[in-house]
Specification:
Blueprint: H1 2-14, H2 27-46, H3 48-52, H4 61-86, H5 92-100, H6 117-135, H7 144-172, H8 176-195, H9 207-212, H10 220-238, E1 248-249, E2 256-257, H11 263-273, H12 277-290, H13 292-310
Antiparallel strand pairs: 1-2
The structure holds acetyl coenzyme *A.
Acetyl coenzyme *A is lined by residues 35-36, 39-40, 43-44, 47, 105, 107-108, 131, 134, 195-199, 204-207, 210, 220, 270.
């Protein structure tokens, strides 16, 4: 019977049917989605920290307002994604506990420090640019609640990418010191941004199954290549140099061939040994503890409302 259910499920996937929360699904499909969606949610939540650090130091009111809105958007994305994971019977509290205990993964990129204001430009341009490249295809993911959440997320990411590019543009066209700051931020964020797409296809353990289930529409290396091809002309437009001496355009395909990525660094960062892993988790735990009174007040209010309704 299970074999028949499995076959029917794959037929639905193959015909581009959307799977919804109450539909039958293989346990491994549910687990894969909870893994990916929760890691994605954690990335949005932790992703607030490196940029949040610059809200008080933004160089103008206009920059502060845009950055504040952006960081709030990331928080909203995390909440939609936890809600999408809840449709798969994963409890939000359990997922958050896993994050705070250091047992859950989140994107490697958020374990690097934001050293100067130019980093806020580089993050918007590169990190949000990479996120869009990866997330546009997720709008067509086979699981309905995840796919629908991605539509709004992608619209907001595209605003984030533009605000980042505009910061880079202002710095790159500014004084020599400002341009040097922009170049320095690009030098530090370029390689970690390429790592966001995950390990090379040959080492990507989940890709084959996730592709058959149409959770993934493109491989890690395909998306990485699309990102490089889109970003090289933007760097040229800014008059900045990508920190890759091996970068060259393939005459036949037009693709930009990039140099070797330091996969050892990637492994270290996802194993918890990146420059800021400890600091990020400590900040997250502190925020959670400091928010305890809000959760308690909300629970007390809900209990009072419930007893009033019962009376
Ligand atoms: N940072 C941390 N962990 C990573 C990264 C990364 N950049 N890339 C891959 N990994 C992890 C995977 O989660 C997986 O770990 P697990 O088995 O413990 O769960 C392992 O490395 C092997 O990788 P893959 O087999 O390639 O994993 P997968 O098929 O899930 O592909 C990818 C990875 C592309 C990141 C996918 O999960 C995805 O598209 N996720 C949704 C997007 C997302 O999470 N974006 C977060 C950053 S964008 C932002 O928040 C602004």
């Amino acid at each position: 019977e299970d074999a028949e259910k499995m076959a029917n499920f794959q037929t639905r996937i193959d015909s581009e049917d959307r799977i919804e929360a109450n539909d039958w699904m293989p346990e491994a499909y549910r687990r894969t989605l909870v893994r990916q969606i929760s890691q994605h949610a954690h990335s949005e939540i932790i992703g607030q920290l490196p940029e949040g650090a610059w809200i008080t130091r933004a160089p103008s009111l206009r920059r502060k307002a845009a950055l504040l809105a952006k960081v709030q958007d990331e928080c909203g994305h995390g909440l939609y994604l936890y809600a999408a994971a809840e449709t798969l019977n994963a409890s939000r509290e359990a997922l958050m506990d896993q994050l705070m205990e250091g047992k859950a993964k989140y994107s490697s990129i958020f374990n690097y420090p934001t050293m100067t204001w130019a980093d806020i430009g580089a993050i918007g341009w590169l990190v949000d640019g990479a996120a869009i490249m990866n997330q546009i295809p997720l709008c067509r993911c086979s699981y309905g609640p995840y796919a629908r959440a991605m539509i709004r997320v992608c619209k907001e990411e595209s605003f984030h990418q533009r605000q980042g590019f505009e910061i880079m543009m202002t710095l790159a066209k500014g004084s020599a010191r400002q341009k040097a700051m922009a170049q320095d931020a690009l030098n530090r964020w370029w390689w970690p941004s390429l790592m966001m797409f995950g390990p090379p296809d040959t080492d990507s353990q989940h890709s084959d199954q996730s592709t058959r289930w149409k959770i993934k529409r493109f491989s890690n290396d395909e998306l990485r290549q699309k990102f490089v091809d889109a970003t090289v002309p933007q760097a040229q437009f800014l008059g900045l140099t990508l920190p890759d001496p091996d970068l060259r355009q393939d005459e036949v395909t037009g693709n930009w061939i990039y140099g070797e990525i330091d996969w050892e660094e990637f492994k270290q960062v996802i194993a918890g040994n990146g420059p800021c892993n400890q600091d990020r988790l400590a900040s997250r735990r502190k925020a959670h503890e400091e928010g305890a009174w809000v959760r308690e007040a909300a629970a007390a209010y809900a209990a009072r409302q419930a007893s009033r309704n019962a009376a």
